[in-house]
């Protein structure tokens, strides 16, 4: 875990805004070609110094402890594995980024014939010991190396991976899942999770603003308001990973990106743009935008029809929006939404320097572009343009 913000650039047309980011789970670009070519035709992206630092960060036990203790995360994966037992029993699985080996072991417990547990971090050595301690060495084969570099001499029936980063794409390990899919997955094979959706929504958060900014107006009776501009910059220049309450969200969310793990290409992930138009459900100071995601665990064949995530919205006419599981036999969903139980991903907030007062029904529109940073493919550049009440703004920040 680290929290660094360094001078990034933001321009504002009127007023202005920017953000503050801290991050814990690093990022992975990935590579390989789009289509389902076979091994020899897929290019292996080089392992950069950034990648080495990334894998190094996963050698610490704390990061794994945090993920495993996130029961919403870990239990949803376990339930999804059990729900898809019939696709796993007697089958060959690859676990992309196995960490401590937990998901590989769940798959072995669900009856997998063989599980390739791949991790480039030194945590793979621990995974290997854990597999031994649980007498699963005949089933779980731990490969210490990058998914892009290891050799697996058979096709696999199932790919499992926990690849999601902050704002879904930040830790873009998804590129490595794409490499694994295009190299090893049998036609009709299963990918867990199968789909993901990134959402955004406008948020009011007066307490957060008061504690970081208004605080300086009166400090033990001293007027410290000259510090306000610096306080705003330090608090809100970069995106913030924090838990917000569902009550802070001013409207239904908009979909920024749908990811279908069966078909997504690496190219598609390099830059994502979405436009939005929100109508505030109440009068409130607008402090920024929140981003969060869901992932869904559906089967291969019925992926299209079973995916409620990719359905058009039922609840709201304006085209974005959330779904809920209508039936218990529908695909399991791991949600990181503000109104759902908290996870270690929390939400990612992009705050403005100054709030915008919006009336009920007031429109907030604009667009957001997320691009892999050129500086480090594991960082994500966020470019936001938004307008409300006749004023428009631009904010750029980096999730690093
Ligand atoms: C978010 S952790 C998940 C660990 C474990 N699957 C779990 O659920 O607890 C992601 C893991 O993937 C590994 N990883 C990321 N990209 C990889 C790649 N290209 N090749 C091999 N391992 C990778 C990291 O080292 C890290 O241990």
Automatic annotation (TrEMBL):
GO annotation, biological process: methylation
Segments of this protein annotated with the region Disordered: 1-42, 303-327
The UniProt record lists the keyword Transport: no
Keywords associated with the record: Methyltransferase, S-adenosyl-L-methionine, Transferase
Pfam family, one: PRMT_C
GO MF annotation: an example: protein-arginine N-methyltransferase activity
Keyword Transferase belongs to the record: yes
InterPro entries, A to Z: Arg_MeTrfase, PRMT_dom, SAM-dependent_MTases_sf
Domain Protein arginine N-methyltransferase: 195-300, 330-388
Entries under CDD domains matching the protein: AdoMet_MTases
Function recorded in the entry: Arginine methyltransferase that can both catalyze the formation of omega-N monomethylarginine (MMA) and asymmetrical dimethylarginine (aDMA).
Full protein name: Protein arginine N-methyltransferase
């Amino acid at each position: 875990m680290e929290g660094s913000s360094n001078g990034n650039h933001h321009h504002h047309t009127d007023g202005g805004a920017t953000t503050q980011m801290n991050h814990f789970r690093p990022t992975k670009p990935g590579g390989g070609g789009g289509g389902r070519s076979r091994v020899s035709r897929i290019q292996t992206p080089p392992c950069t110094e950034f990648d080495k630092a990334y894998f190094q960060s996963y050698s610490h036990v704390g990061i794994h402890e945090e993920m495993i203790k996130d029961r919403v995360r870990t239990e949803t994966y376990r339930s999804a594995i059990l729900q898809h037992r019939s696709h796993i029993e007697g089958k060959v699985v690859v676990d992309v980024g196995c960490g401590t080996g937990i998901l590989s072991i769940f798959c072995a417990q669900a009856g997998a014939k063989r599980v390739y547990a791949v991790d480039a971090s030194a945590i793979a050595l621990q995974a290997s010991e854990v597999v031994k301690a649980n007498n699963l060495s005949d089933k779980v084969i731990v490969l210490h190396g990058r998914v892009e570099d290891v050799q697996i001499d058979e096709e696999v029936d199932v790919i499992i991976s926990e690849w999601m980063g902050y704002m879904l794409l930040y830790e873009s390990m998804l590129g490595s899942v794409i490499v694994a899919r295009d190299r090893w997955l049998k036609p009709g094979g299963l990918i867990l999770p199968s789909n993901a959706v990134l959402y955004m929504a406008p948020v009011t958060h007066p307490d957060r603003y008061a504690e970081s900014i208004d605080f300086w107006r009166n400090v033990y009776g001293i007027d410290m308001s000259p510090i306000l501009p610096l306080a705003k910059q330090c608090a809100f220049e970069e995106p913030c990973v924090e838990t917000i309450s569902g009550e802070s969200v001013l409207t239904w969310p908009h979909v920024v990106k749908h990811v279908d793990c069966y078909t997504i290409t690496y190219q598609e992930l390099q830059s994502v743009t979405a436009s939005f138009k929100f109508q505030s459900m109440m009068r409130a100071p607008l402090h920024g935008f929140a981003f969060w995601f869901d992932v869904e665990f559906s089967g291969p064949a019925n992926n299209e029809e079973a995916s409620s995530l990719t359905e058009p919205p039922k609840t709201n006419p304006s085209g974005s929006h959330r779904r809920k599981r209508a039936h218990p036999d529908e695909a399991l969903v791991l949600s990181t939404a503000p109104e759902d139980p908290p996870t270690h991903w929390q939400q990612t907030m992009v705050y403005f320097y100054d709030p915008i007062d919006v009336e009920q029904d007031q429109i907030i529109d604009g667009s957001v572009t997320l691009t892999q940073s050129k500086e480090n493919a594991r960082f994500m550049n966020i470019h936001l343009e938004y307008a409300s009440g006749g004023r428009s703004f631009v904010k750029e920040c980096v999730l690093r």
